[in-house]
Amino acid sequence: MPHILGLLCLLNLVDPLSAKDAAVVFVVDPEWDCVSSYVANVPLLQEYKIIKVMTRLGNASQCNSDYADIYQNITYNSLYPNDTLALEEICPKLMSLGFPIAAIIPTFDPAVFLTDRLAACVGVRGNPSDGPLAKARRDKWVTNGAVRKAGLRSVKEQIVSTWNEAKEYLESLNPPLSQANPVIFKILEGSNSQGVQKVYSLKQAEEIFSREVGTKSEFGEQIGSLLIQEFLKGKEYVIDSASRDGVHKTVMVWNEDLRPGNGIEFLYFGFKAMDPEDQKTKVIIDYANKVLDATGLRNGASTKYRLFRL
Q1: Radius of gyration of the chain (CA)
Q2: 204 CB-near residues (< 8 Å, 6+ apart)
Q3: How confident is the model at residue 19 (pLDDT cuts 50, 70, 90)?
Q4: Taking Cα atoms as reference points, which of 192, 289, 274, 283 lies closest to residue 242?
Q5: Cβ of 26: how many Cβ atoms within 10 Å?
Q6: What is residue 238's three-state secondary structure?
Q7: Angle 231-234-236 (CA atoms, 0-180°, nearest 5)?
Q8: Distance from C-alpha of 300 to C-alpha of 114, rounded to nearest angstrom
Q9: Domain chopping of the chain, boundaries
Q10: What is the pLDDT of residue 3?
């Protein structure tokens, strides 16, 4: 549901042009390729030529049985994504279509950075694709740094590239690392809780560090560093919103029931919609909007952009 909600929110980027005059471009990772299903179920999309840009080679996951025609498919010819090379290859193809592009929309986290760069290249609404905020919506360390720089509350954390750096930081914690005081290990550009692990001891930390650093994520990105964050106890909240030209509209605030279960550390047990008139909900929305400003998100959907524990 969050991905479909995000897609519908992103349609606020689209300008009202007829199908014979314009295209909507979806930037897709094979891990989440439901574009034809989206088009079949969203009437507005059916008014446009649909172009699908694949960030890499790979077999798409199965969606439902509803399908619509794709006008053109463009695939970056590599098993692993490379935003720079893909931009050089794909942007000229989009520029030579012979009709305008109304919007460029990502369908999955790993497609966000290429989407930003393609949007800048063809001149449609997007978010910063270069400069200090270029990675602020993709790299957790850069994200939280932008939040801190804006004077907003942020989680305590440290980025580490060697085990000695990790060990030194963990040994400096007060209270010390233990079952009662765990920390969270994250990879910088993970998605859907990939690479998120709760750590209780130095031994466990070393095992995870040795296993993760130096390998590649499931999206082909080299893992050279890990992020160590404090573990925040309490209720967790998620904010779904849509933005256009820097104006943010909150769609929903959820209380997320995320607990260990079935051998998984972070398993979804359910969601509860929060009352938008409740004072706590208003505080959460205000903070979320300030985070969007701090990280340069001016256009598009932000589903689960920021998690809160209160």
Answers
A1: 20
A2: none
A3: low
A4: 289
A5: 26
A6: strand
A7: 95
A8: 14
A9: 2-122, 156-230, 236-309
A10: 45
- pLDDT higher than threshold 90 for residue 91: yes
2-122 CATH choice from 3.90.226.10, 3.40.50.1110, 3.40.50.20, 3.40.50.2000: 3.40.50.20
Query: Whose CA is closest to 76, among 53, 45, 93, 98?
Result: 53
Hey, what amino acid is at 253? V
Domains 2-122 and 156-230 share a fold: no
Round to whole Å and give the CA distance between 231 and 179: 11
Mean pLDDT within 202-225: 85
Is the pLDDT reported for residue 291 higher than 60?
yes
Q: How far is the CA of 278 from the CAs of 196, 274, 275, in angstroms?
A: 31, 8, 5
Q: What digits encode the pLDDT tens for the residues 267-278?
A: 889 999 999 999
The DSSP result for 73-109, as a single string, is EEE-SSSS--HHHHHHHHHHHHHTSSS-EEEEEESSG
Class of domain 156-230: alpha beta
Buried b (16+ CB within 10 A) or exposed e, 234-250: eebbbbbbbbeeeebeb
Distance CA 39, CA 78 (A): 26
124 closest CA partner among 267, 279, 17: 17
